[in-house]
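Quick note —
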Amino acid sequence: MTINDLSSIRDVSGPSISPDGKTVVYSVSEQNLKRDAANSDIWSVSFQGGEPKALTKTDDKSEWAPKYSPDGKTIAFLSDNTKEGETQIFLMKSRGGNARQISKIDGGVQEFNWAPDSDQIVLTAFVGGAKPNDAGTVPPIVIDRFQFKEDWNDYLTTNRLHMFILDVDKKNAKQITNGEKDHWLPAWSPDGKWIAFVSKDNGDVDRNMDSDVFIMEPQIDAQTRRLSHFKGTDVDPYWLSPPAWSPDSKQLVWLQSKESKWIYYAPWQLTIADVESGKNRNIARIDRSFYTPKWSSDGRTIYALIEQDRSTWLAKIDSQTGEVDYVNEGNRFALEYDVSQNGNIVLLDSTDDRPFELVAIDENERKLTNHNSWLDGIELGITKPFSFVNNGHVISGIMTLPSGYKEGQKLPTIFRLHGGPVYQFSHEFMSDWQIYAANGFATVGINPRGSSGKGFDFAKAIYADWGNVDVSDILSGSDYLVNEGIVDPDRMGVGGWSYGGILTDYVIGTDQRFKAAISGAGAANMLGTYGHDQYSREYELELG
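Predicted structure written out below.
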Protein backbone atom coordinates (compact mmCIF):
# COMPACT_ATOMS: atom_id res chain seq x y z
CA MET A 1 0.00 0.00 0.00
CA THR A 2 0.99 3.60 -0.62
CA ILE A 3 -0.27 6.86 0.82
CA ASN A 4 -2.16 7.44 -2.43
CA ASP A 5 -4.11 4.26 -1.78
CA LEU A 6 -5.75 5.89 1.23
CA SER A 7 -8.06 7.81 -1.10
CA SER A 8 -9.26 4.52 -2.61
CA ILE A 9 -10.59 3.06 0.65
CA ARG A 10 -14.37 2.95 0.88
CA ASP A 11 -15.90 2.99 4.36
CA VAL A 12 -19.05 0.89 4.71
CA SER A 13 -21.44 1.64 7.60
CA GLY A 14 -25.01 1.75 8.91
CA PRO A 15 -26.64 -1.47 7.62
CA SER A 16 -30.44 -1.73 7.81
CA ILE A 17 -32.21 -4.91 6.71
CA SER A 18 -35.75 -4.84 5.30
CA PRO A 19 -38.49 -6.29 7.52
CA ASP A 20 -38.89 -9.27 5.17
CA GLY A 21 -35.13 -9.91 5.30
CA LYS A 22 -34.67 -9.69 1.53
CA THR A 23 -32.67 -6.46 1.08
CA VAL A 24 -30.02 -4.52 2.94
CA VAL A 25 -29.38 -0.78 2.67
CA TYR A 26 -26.24 0.91 3.97
CA SER A 27 -23.94 3.83 3.31
CA VAL A 28 -20.55 3.98 1.62
CA SER A 29 -18.15 6.85 2.17
CA GLU A 30 -15.21 7.68 -0.09
CA GLN A 31 -12.76 10.51 -0.57
CA ASN A 32 -13.44 13.25 -3.11
CA LEU A 33 -9.96 14.52 -3.94
CA LYS A 34 -11.23 17.53 -5.89
CA ARG A 35 -13.16 18.75 -2.86
CA ASP A 36 -10.58 17.43 -0.37
CA ALA A 37 -13.46 15.91 1.63
CA ALA A 38 -15.31 12.66 2.14
CA ASN A 39 -18.85 12.13 0.91
CA SER A 40 -21.19 9.17 1.36
CA ASP A 41 -24.07 7.61 -0.59
CA ILE A 42 -26.80 5.09 0.12
CA TRP A 43 -26.40 1.61 -1.41
CA SER A 44 -28.47 -1.56 -1.41
CA VAL A 45 -27.74 -5.26 -1.89
CA SER A 46 -29.88 -8.39 -1.90
CA PHE A 47 -29.54 -10.54 1.22
CA GLN A 48 -29.13 -13.55 -1.09
CA GLY A 49 -26.20 -11.88 -2.79
CA GLY A 50 -25.62 -10.11 -6.07
CA GLU A 51 -24.19 -6.83 -7.29
CA PRO A 52 -24.74 -3.91 -4.88
CA LYS A 53 -26.22 -0.77 -6.41
CA ALA A 54 -26.03 2.89 -5.45
CA LEU A 55 -29.38 4.46 -4.58
CA THR A 56 -27.98 7.99 -4.35
CA LYS A 57 -25.12 9.72 -6.11
CA THR A 58 -24.20 13.22 -4.93
CA ASP A 59 -20.61 14.30 -5.48
CA ASP A 60 -20.62 17.29 -3.14
CA LYS A 61 -23.22 16.19 -0.55
CA SER A 62 -23.70 13.12 1.64
CA GLU A 63 -26.43 10.65 2.58
CA TRP A 64 -26.12 8.23 5.50
CA ALA A 65 -27.90 6.30 8.31
CA PRO A 66 -30.61 4.65 6.16
CA LYS A 67 -33.50 2.91 7.96
CA TYR A 68 -36.30 0.86 6.46
CA SER A 69 -39.81 1.82 7.47
CA PRO A 70 -41.60 -0.92 9.48
CA ASP A 71 -43.86 -1.67 6.48
CA GLY A 72 -40.78 -2.01 4.25
CA LYS A 73 -42.11 0.40 1.61
CA THR A 74 -39.74 3.31 2.14
CA ILE A 75 -36.24 4.20 3.34
CA ALA A 76 -35.52 7.24 5.49
CA PHE A 77 -32.00 8.59 5.77
CA LEU A 78 -30.02 11.65 6.83
CA SER A 79 -28.50 14.03 4.31
CA ASP A 80 -26.89 17.46 4.14
CA ASN A 81 -28.19 17.92 0.58
CA THR A 82 -30.20 20.96 1.66
CA LYS A 83 -30.20 24.64 0.78
CA GLU A 84 -28.90 25.55 4.24
CA GLY A 85 -26.42 22.65 4.35
CA GLU A 86 -28.09 21.37 7.53
CA THR A 87 -28.71 17.67 8.16
CA GLN A 88 -32.33 16.71 7.48
CA ILE A 89 -34.37 13.54 6.93
CA PHE A 90 -35.02 12.40 3.36
CA LEU A 91 -37.31 9.66 2.07
CA MET A 92 -37.24 7.38 -0.96
CA LYS A 93 -39.11 4.28 -2.06
CA SER A 94 -37.52 1.01 -0.99
CA ARG A 95 -36.55 0.15 -4.57
CA GLY A 96 -34.83 3.50 -4.99
CA GLY A 97 -35.67 6.51 -7.11
CA ASN A 98 -35.94 10.20 -6.37
CA ALA A 99 -35.47 11.21 -2.75
CA ARG A 100 -37.49 13.99 -1.13
CA GLN A 101 -36.73 16.05 1.94
CA ILE A 102 -39.39 15.54 4.62
CA SER A 103 -37.96 17.49 7.59
CA LYS A 104 -37.00 21.11 7.96
CA ILE A 105 -35.80 21.37 11.54
CA ASP A 106 -33.96 24.55 12.49
CA GLY A 107 -30.34 23.63 13.14
CA GLY A 108 -30.68 20.13 11.66
CA VAL A 109 -31.58 16.61 12.82
CA GLN A 110 -29.33 14.58 15.12
CA GLU A 111 -30.99 11.12 14.99
CA PHE A 112 -34.35 9.51 14.23
CA ASN A 113 -36.50 6.40 14.69
CA TRP A 114 -39.59 5.19 12.84
CA ALA A 115 -43.05 4.87 14.39
CA PRO A 116 -44.53 1.37 13.94
CA ASP A 117 -47.27 2.72 11.60
CA SER A 118 -44.60 4.03 9.18
CA ASP A 119 -46.48 7.36 9.08
CA GLN A 120 -44.44 9.18 11.71
CA ILE A 121 -40.83 9.56 12.81
CA VAL A 122 -39.42 10.63 16.17
CA LEU A 123 -36.25 12.70 15.92
CA THR A 124 -33.96 14.80 18.08
CA ALA A 125 -32.61 18.29 17.44
CA PHE A 126 -30.92 21.04 19.44
CA VAL A 127 -33.27 23.78 20.64
CA GLY A 128 -32.68 27.07 22.42
CA GLY A 129 -29.48 28.48 21.00
CA ALA A 130 -29.26 32.15 20.08
CA LYS A 131 -29.77 32.88 16.37
CA PRO A 132 -28.26 35.53 14.09
CA ASN A 133 -30.36 38.69 13.84
CA ASP A 134 -32.06 39.93 10.67
CA ALA A 135 -28.80 41.52 9.56
CA GLY A 136 -27.02 38.17 9.88
CA THR A 137 -24.94 39.20 12.90
CA VAL A 138 -23.86 36.15 14.88
CA PRO A 139 -24.68 36.51 18.60
CA PRO A 140 -21.95 36.34 21.27
CA ILE A 141 -21.22 32.97 22.86
CA VAL A 142 -22.56 33.01 26.41
CA ILE A 143 -21.30 30.32 28.79
CA ASP A 144 -23.37 29.55 31.88
CA ARG A 145 -23.06 25.79 32.28
CA PHE A 146 -20.31 23.42 33.38
CA GLN A 147 -20.07 21.42 30.15
CA PHE A 148 -19.97 24.27 27.70
CA LYS A 149 -18.82 22.54 24.52
CA GLU A 150 -18.91 19.14 22.89
CA ASP A 151 -17.17 17.45 19.98
CA TRP A 152 -19.16 17.80 16.74
CA ASN A 153 -21.69 20.11 18.42
CA ASP A 154 -19.54 23.20 19.05
CA TYR A 155 -20.33 25.47 22.02
CA LEU A 156 -23.48 24.25 23.76
CA THR A 157 -24.61 27.64 25.21
CA THR A 158 -28.34 27.25 26.00
CA ASN A 159 -28.89 24.45 23.49
CA ARG A 160 -30.70 21.33 24.71
CA LEU A 161 -31.50 18.22 22.72
CA HIS A 162 -35.27 17.74 22.40
CA MET A 163 -37.58 15.28 20.66
CA PHE A 164 -39.91 16.04 17.77
CA ILE A 165 -42.56 13.94 16.00
CA LEU A 166 -42.51 14.30 12.23
CA ASP A 167 -45.54 13.55 10.05
CA VAL A 168 -44.04 11.84 7.02
CA ASP A 169 -46.73 12.90 4.50
CA LYS A 170 -47.45 16.40 5.79
CA LYS A 171 -43.76 17.06 6.48
CA ASN A 172 -44.56 19.02 9.64
CA ALA A 173 -42.91 18.40 12.99
CA LYS A 174 -44.08 19.12 16.52
CA GLN A 175 -41.73 19.43 19.49
CA ILE A 176 -42.87 17.05 22.25
CA THR A 177 -40.30 17.77 25.00
CA ASN A 178 -39.16 20.97 26.67
CA GLY A 179 -37.01 22.10 29.56
CA GLU A 180 -33.38 22.31 30.61
CA LYS A 181 -32.35 18.72 29.98
CA ASP A 182 -31.33 16.65 26.97
CA HIS A 183 -33.18 13.75 25.36
CA TRP A 184 -31.13 11.15 23.50
CA LEU A 185 -31.66 7.95 21.50
CA PRO A 186 -35.46 7.83 21.08
CA ALA A 187 -37.04 4.42 20.35
CA TRP A 188 -40.74 3.99 19.49
CA SER A 189 -42.48 0.93 20.96
CA PRO A 190 -43.88 -1.63 18.48
CA ASP A 191 -47.45 -1.06 19.77
CA GLY A 192 -47.07 2.68 19.18
CA LYS A 193 -47.96 3.68 22.76
CA TRP A 194 -44.57 4.77 24.05
CA ILE A 195 -41.32 6.45 23.12
CA ALA A 196 -38.31 5.38 25.16
CA PHE A 197 -35.40 7.78 25.50
CA VAL A 198 -32.33 8.55 27.60
CA SER A 199 -31.93 11.62 29.79
CA LYS A 200 -30.36 12.92 33.00
CA ASP A 201 -32.23 14.69 35.79
CA ASN A 202 -30.18 14.08 38.96
CA GLY A 203 -28.27 17.04 40.35
CA ASP A 204 -26.13 19.13 38.02
CA VAL A 205 -26.40 16.91 34.96
CA ASP A 206 -23.19 18.35 33.50
CA ARG A 207 -21.20 17.03 36.47
CA ASN A 208 -22.30 13.36 36.57
CA MET A 209 -22.77 10.34 34.33
CA ASP A 210 -26.09 9.35 35.91
CA SER A 211 -28.17 8.90 32.75
CA ASP A 212 -31.47 7.00 32.91
CA VAL A 213 -34.05 5.39 30.63
CA PHE A 214 -37.49 7.00 30.49
CA ILE A 215 -40.70 6.41 28.55
CA MET A 216 -43.45 8.82 27.53
CA GLU A 217 -46.54 8.79 25.35
CA PRO A 218 -45.93 10.29 21.89
CA GLN A 219 -47.66 13.56 22.74
CA ILE A 220 -46.59 17.13 23.47
CA ASP A 221 -45.36 17.51 27.08
CA ALA A 222 -46.63 14.04 28.04
CA GLN A 223 -45.69 12.84 31.51
CA THR A 224 -42.43 10.88 31.58
CA ARG A 225 -41.86 7.71 33.58
CA ARG A 226 -38.45 6.54 34.77
CA LEU A 227 -37.67 2.88 34.05
CA SER A 228 -34.08 2.71 35.31
CA HIS A 229 -33.35 3.19 38.98
CA PHE A 230 -29.60 2.54 39.20
CA LYS A 231 -27.53 5.44 40.58
CA GLY A 232 -25.05 5.35 37.78
CA THR A 233 -24.92 5.22 34.00
CA ASP A 234 -27.84 3.66 32.13
CA VAL A 235 -27.00 4.08 28.44
CA ASP A 236 -24.21 6.55 27.86
CA PRO A 237 -25.57 8.57 24.91
CA TYR A 238 -22.18 8.71 23.23
CA TRP A 239 -22.18 4.96 22.57
CA LEU A 240 -25.15 5.45 20.17
CA SER A 241 -26.88 2.34 21.55
CA PRO A 242 -30.57 3.15 22.15
CA PRO A 243 -32.78 1.15 24.52
CA ALA A 244 -34.46 -1.64 22.53
CA TRP A 245 -38.12 -2.72 22.78
CA SER A 246 -39.25 -6.33 22.94
CA PRO A 247 -41.65 -7.18 20.07
CA ASP A 248 -44.64 -7.24 22.45
CA SER A 249 -43.69 -3.79 23.85
CA LYS A 250 -43.66 -5.17 27.38
CA GLN A 251 -39.90 -5.02 28.00
CA LEU A 252 -36.93 -2.79 27.31
CA VAL A 253 -33.27 -3.81 27.23
CA TRP A 254 -30.39 -1.37 27.51
CA LEU A 255 -26.72 -1.04 28.46
CA GLN A 256 -25.84 -0.28 32.06
CA SER A 257 -22.44 0.67 33.49
CA LYS A 258 -21.46 1.54 37.07
CA GLU A 259 -21.59 4.69 39.19
CA SER A 260 -20.31 7.91 37.68
CA LYS A 261 -16.79 7.73 39.11
CA TRP A 262 -15.92 4.71 36.98
CA ILE A 263 -16.68 6.70 33.83
CA TYR A 264 -15.66 4.42 30.93
CA TYR A 265 -13.66 1.84 32.87
CA ALA A 266 -16.64 -0.41 33.68
CA PRO A 267 -17.81 -2.83 30.97
CA TRP A 268 -21.32 -2.20 29.60
CA GLN A 269 -23.80 -4.84 30.77
CA LEU A 270 -27.39 -5.82 29.87
CA THR A 271 -30.38 -4.70 31.93
CA ILE A 272 -34.03 -5.52 31.18
CA ALA A 273 -37.04 -3.62 32.53
CA ASP A 274 -40.64 -4.79 32.73
CA VAL A 275 -42.55 -1.77 31.44
CA GLU A 276 -45.73 -2.30 33.47
CA SER A 277 -44.11 -2.92 36.87
CA GLY A 278 -40.91 -0.96 36.28
CA LYS A 279 -38.88 -3.81 37.77
CA ASN A 280 -35.29 -4.12 36.48
CA ARG A 281 -33.31 -7.33 36.15
CA ASN A 282 -29.73 -8.01 35.11
CA ILE A 283 -28.88 -10.79 32.67
CA ALA A 284 -25.70 -12.29 31.18
CA ARG A 285 -23.44 -10.39 33.58
CA ILE A 286 -20.12 -11.48 32.14
CA ASP A 287 -17.06 -9.27 32.61
CA ARG A 288 -17.07 -7.95 29.05
CA SER A 289 -18.67 -5.00 27.26
CA PHE A 290 -21.94 -5.46 25.35
CA TYR A 291 -23.03 -3.16 22.52
CA THR A 292 -26.27 -2.40 20.61
CA PRO A 293 -28.71 -5.01 22.02
CA LYS A 294 -31.69 -5.96 19.81
CA TRP A 295 -34.55 -8.42 20.26
CA SER A 296 -35.47 -11.32 18.02
CA SER A 297 -38.98 -11.22 16.55
CA ASP A 298 -40.21 -13.90 19.00
CA GLY A 299 -38.79 -12.13 22.04
CA ARG A 300 -36.83 -15.15 23.21
CA THR A 301 -33.41 -13.89 22.16
CA ILE A 302 -31.46 -10.69 22.58
CA TYR A 303 -28.68 -10.10 20.09
CA ALA A 304 -25.65 -8.01 21.06
CA LEU A 305 -22.05 -7.38 20.15
CA ILE A 306 -19.64 -8.50 22.88
CA GLU A 307 -16.04 -7.33 23.09
CA GLN A 308 -13.31 -9.91 23.66
CA ASP A 309 -9.54 -9.68 23.91
CA ARG A 310 -8.61 -8.09 20.52
CA SER A 311 -11.91 -9.11 18.88
CA THR A 312 -15.63 -8.28 18.99
CA TRP A 313 -18.25 -10.93 18.17
CA LEU A 314 -21.99 -11.09 17.66
CA ALA A 315 -23.87 -13.13 20.27
CA LYS A 316 -27.35 -14.45 21.02
CA ILE A 317 -28.47 -14.17 24.65
CA ASP A 318 -31.43 -16.08 26.05
CA SER A 319 -33.74 -13.34 27.35
CA GLN A 320 -34.76 -15.45 30.36
CA THR A 321 -31.67 -17.38 31.41
CA GLY A 322 -28.98 -15.03 30.09
CA GLU A 323 -27.13 -17.91 28.41
CA VAL A 324 -24.71 -16.54 25.80
CA ASP A 325 -24.20 -18.25 22.44
CA TYR A 326 -21.79 -16.65 19.95
CA VAL A 327 -22.94 -16.33 16.36
CA ASN A 328 -19.38 -15.87 15.07
CA GLU A 329 -15.89 -16.04 16.48
CA GLY A 330 -12.28 -15.68 15.35
CA ASN A 331 -9.91 -12.79 14.76
CA ARG A 332 -12.39 -10.10 13.68
CA PHE A 333 -14.01 -6.87 14.78
CA ALA A 334 -17.81 -6.71 14.47
CA LEU A 335 -19.00 -3.10 14.56
CA GLU A 336 -22.69 -2.99 13.53
CA TYR A 337 -25.51 -5.38 12.63
CA ASP A 338 -29.24 -5.63 11.99
CA VAL A 339 -31.82 -8.42 12.30
CA SER A 340 -34.98 -8.87 10.20
CA GLN A 341 -38.32 -10.25 11.35
CA ASN A 342 -37.52 -13.66 9.86
CA GLY A 343 -34.17 -13.85 11.66
CA ASN A 344 -31.84 -12.93 8.81
CA ILE A 345 -28.78 -11.07 10.09
CA VAL A 346 -26.54 -8.60 8.31
CA LEU A 347 -23.21 -7.91 10.03
CA LEU A 348 -20.60 -5.24 9.44
CA ASP A 349 -17.14 -6.41 10.44
CA SER A 350 -13.47 -6.23 9.56
CA THR A 351 -10.41 -8.47 9.73
CA ASP A 352 -6.67 -7.88 9.63
CA ASP A 353 -6.65 -7.90 5.83
CA ARG A 354 -10.14 -6.59 4.97
CA PRO A 355 -11.77 -3.21 5.73
CA PHE A 356 -15.32 -3.20 7.09
CA GLU A 357 -17.73 -4.97 4.75
CA LEU A 358 -21.16 -6.58 5.07
CA VAL A 359 -21.73 -10.29 5.56
CA ALA A 360 -25.05 -12.17 5.61
CA ILE A 361 -25.76 -14.68 8.35
CA ASP A 362 -28.56 -17.25 8.09
CA GLU A 363 -27.62 -20.93 8.07
CA ASN A 364 -24.16 -19.91 6.92
CA GLU A 365 -22.07 -16.75 6.61
CA ARG A 366 -21.68 -15.11 3.21
CA LYS A 367 -19.91 -11.98 2.01
CA LEU A 368 -22.40 -9.43 0.70
CA THR A 369 -20.13 -6.55 -0.28
CA ASN A 370 -16.60 -6.08 -1.52
CA HIS A 371 -16.28 -2.33 -1.96
CA ASN A 372 -12.53 -2.56 -1.49
CA SER A 373 -11.85 -5.24 -4.09
CA TRP A 374 -8.89 -3.20 -5.33
CA LEU A 375 -7.03 -4.55 -2.29
CA ASP A 376 -7.03 -7.98 -3.95
CA GLY A 377 -4.11 -6.75 -6.04
CA ILE A 378 -2.17 -5.26 -3.13
CA GLU A 379 0.58 -7.14 -1.33
CA LEU A 380 -0.26 -6.69 2.35
CA GLY A 381 1.88 -6.95 5.43
CA ILE A 382 1.61 -9.88 7.83
CA THR A 383 -0.53 -9.22 10.93
CA LYS A 384 -0.37 -11.51 13.92
CA PRO A 385 -1.21 -11.43 17.64
CA PHE A 386 1.27 -11.83 20.47
CA SER A 387 1.27 -11.90 24.28
CA PHE A 388 3.82 -11.52 27.07
CA VAL A 389 3.84 -11.38 30.88
CA ASN A 390 4.71 -8.27 32.89
CA ASN A 391 4.58 -8.26 36.69
CA GLY A 392 2.30 -11.29 36.64
CA HIS A 393 -0.16 -9.81 34.11
CA VAL A 394 -0.70 -11.29 30.63
CA ILE A 395 -0.50 -8.37 28.19
CA SER A 396 -1.77 -8.80 24.62
CA GLY A 397 -0.97 -7.04 21.40
CA ILE A 398 -1.07 -7.09 17.61
CA MET A 399 1.75 -6.40 15.17
CA THR A 400 2.03 -5.97 11.42
CA LEU A 401 5.27 -6.96 9.69
CA PRO A 402 6.41 -6.36 6.09
CA SER A 403 5.41 -9.07 3.65
CA GLY A 404 8.23 -11.51 3.12
CA TYR A 405 9.52 -10.95 6.64
CA LYS A 406 12.12 -13.55 7.61
CA GLU A 407 12.47 -14.77 11.19
CA GLY A 408 15.37 -13.15 13.01
CA GLN A 409 15.26 -9.99 10.91
CA LYS A 410 15.35 -6.95 13.22
CA LEU A 411 13.04 -4.20 12.00
CA PRO A 412 12.64 -0.50 12.62
CA THR A 413 9.44 -0.42 14.64
CA ILE A 414 6.63 2.01 15.37
CA PHE A 415 4.85 1.41 18.68
CA ARG A 416 1.28 2.73 18.39
CA LEU A 417 -0.54 3.65 21.63
CA HIS A 418 -4.35 3.62 21.58
CA GLY A 419 -6.70 6.28 22.89
CA GLY A 420 -9.57 5.95 25.30
CA PRO A 421 -7.82 5.14 27.58
CA VAL A 422 -10.32 2.25 27.76
CA TYR A 423 -10.04 0.91 24.23
CA GLN A 424 -7.90 -1.70 22.53
CA PHE A 425 -6.18 -2.64 19.31
CA SER A 426 -8.36 -5.26 17.61
CA HIS A 427 -8.23 -7.49 14.57
CA GLU A 428 -9.38 -4.88 12.08
CA PHE A 429 -7.86 -3.51 8.90
CA MET A 430 -5.49 -0.63 9.67
CA SER A 431 -4.39 1.08 6.50
CA ASP A 432 -1.60 3.16 8.06
CA TRP A 433 0.01 0.03 9.50
CA GLN A 434 0.00 -1.47 6.00
CA ILE A 435 1.71 1.61 4.59
CA TYR A 436 4.41 1.36 7.25
CA ALA A 437 4.85 -2.35 6.43
CA ALA A 438 5.24 -1.52 2.73
CA ASN A 439 8.11 0.77 3.72
CA GLY A 440 9.90 -1.86 5.78
CA PHE A 441 8.60 -0.98 9.25
CA ALA A 442 6.99 -3.18 11.86
CA THR A 443 3.99 -1.66 13.65
CA VAL A 444 3.17 -2.81 17.17
CA GLY A 445 -0.03 -2.18 19.09
CA ILE A 446 0.18 -3.24 22.75
CA ASN A 447 -2.98 -3.28 24.88
CA PRO A 448 -1.56 -2.34 28.29
CA ARG A 449 -3.44 -2.35 31.57
CA GLY A 450 -6.21 0.21 31.19
CA SER A 451 -7.34 -1.34 27.90
CA SER A 452 -10.74 -2.92 27.28
CA GLY A 453 -11.43 -6.50 26.27
CA LYS A 454 -10.17 -8.10 29.49
CA GLY A 455 -12.71 -6.96 32.06
CA PHE A 456 -13.18 -4.36 34.77
CA ASP A 457 -10.12 -5.02 36.94
CA PHE A 458 -7.76 -4.92 33.97
CA ALA A 459 -9.22 -1.61 32.75
CA LYS A 460 -9.38 0.15 36.11
CA ALA A 461 -5.73 -0.66 36.89
CA ILE A 462 -4.82 2.85 35.65
CA TYR A 463 -7.74 4.63 37.34
CA ALA A 464 -6.46 7.98 38.70
CA ASP A 465 -2.94 6.60 38.09
CA TRP A 466 -2.16 7.38 34.47
CA GLY A 467 1.33 6.74 33.12
CA ASN A 468 2.34 4.17 35.70
CA VAL A 469 1.48 0.49 35.06
CA ASP A 470 0.52 1.19 31.44
CA VAL A 471 3.97 2.69 30.79
CA SER A 472 5.50 -0.39 32.45
CA ASP A 473 3.53 -2.63 30.07
CA ILE A 474 4.63 -0.69 26.99
CA LEU A 475 8.30 -0.79 27.98
CA SER A 476 8.08 -4.47 28.92
CA GLY A 477 6.47 -5.21 25.56
CA SER A 478 9.26 -3.50 23.69
CA ASP A 479 11.80 -5.55 25.68
CA TYR A 480 9.92 -8.74 24.80
CA LEU A 481 9.88 -8.02 21.06
CA VAL A 482 13.54 -7.00 21.07
CA ASN A 483 14.41 -10.29 22.80
CA GLU A 484 12.29 -12.13 20.22
CA GLY A 485 14.60 -10.73 17.54
CA ILE A 486 11.84 -8.80 15.74
CA VAL A 487 12.47 -5.21 16.86
CA ASP A 488 15.68 -3.28 16.34
CA PRO A 489 16.25 -1.58 19.74
CA ASP A 490 18.14 1.29 18.06
CA ARG A 491 15.27 2.12 15.68
CA MET A 492 12.09 2.41 17.75
CA GLY A 493 9.47 5.15 17.57
CA VAL A 494 6.30 5.66 19.61
CA GLY A 495 3.12 7.65 19.20
CA GLY A 496 -0.63 7.87 19.53
CA TRP A 497 -3.67 10.13 19.62
CA SER A 498 -5.90 11.37 22.45
CA TYR A 499 -5.01 9.23 25.48
CA GLY A 500 -2.44 7.64 23.16
CA GLY A 501 -0.85 11.09 22.97
CA ILE A 502 -1.01 11.47 26.74
CA LEU A 503 0.56 8.03 27.23
CA THR A 504 3.27 8.91 24.70
CA ASP A 505 4.22 11.85 26.93
CA TYR A 506 4.41 9.56 29.96
CA VAL A 507 6.49 6.97 28.06
CA ILE A 508 9.14 9.40 26.80
CA GLY A 509 9.18 11.13 30.17
CA THR A 510 10.00 7.79 31.78
CA ASP A 511 12.51 6.22 29.37
CA GLN A 512 14.74 7.34 26.49
CA ARG A 513 14.77 4.17 24.42
CA PHE A 514 12.53 5.59 21.67
CA LYS A 515 14.30 7.67 19.02
CA ALA A 516 11.16 9.54 17.88
CA ALA A 517 7.71 10.25 19.30
CA ILE A 518 4.46 11.84 18.18
CA SER A 519 1.92 13.01 20.77
CA GLY A 520 -1.27 13.68 18.81
CA ALA A 521 -4.35 15.43 20.21
CA GLY A 522 -3.15 14.72 23.71
CA ALA A 523 -2.49 16.82 26.79
CA ALA A 524 0.67 17.15 28.86
CA ASN A 525 -0.72 19.42 31.59
CA MET A 526 -4.15 18.54 33.00
CA LEU A 527 -4.21 21.72 35.12
CA GLY A 528 -3.82 23.75 31.96
CA THR A 529 -6.42 21.72 30.11
CA TYR A 530 -9.02 21.80 32.89
CA GLY A 531 -11.82 24.22 32.08
CA HIS A 532 -10.68 24.54 28.46
CA ASP A 533 -12.00 21.32 26.95
CA GLN A 534 -15.12 19.19 27.22
CA TYR A 535 -13.67 16.72 29.74
CA SER A 536 -13.70 18.78 32.94
CA ARG A 537 -16.37 16.46 34.36
CA GLU A 538 -14.25 13.38 33.65
CA TYR A 539 -11.15 14.97 35.20
CA GLU A 540 -13.06 15.74 38.41
CA LEU A 541 -14.71 12.31 38.62
CA GLU A 542 -11.42 10.46 38.21
CA LEU A 543 -8.65 12.77 39.31
CA GLY A 544 -10.46 14.82 41.95
